[in-house]
Design brief:
Layout lengths: L1 H7 L5 E4 L6 H8 L3 E4 L7
Parallel strand pairs: 1-2
Length: about 45
Amino acid sequence: MTLIIEASSDFKEVIWELFGVLFTASIAAKNLGRNIKSGSIGVIR
C-alpha cells in the first residue's frame, strides 16, 4: 500500500480512503506525510 501511495501522490496531498475498515491506506499515507480523509460505513444493530 505504501508503494502505491508513494508512486501516485505527492507530499502533503490528501489521500481519501472511502471504505476504511482496517484503514491500511490511511496508516501508510500518514507514514508518508500525506493528509488523510477516511471513513467507514457500519451497521448498527
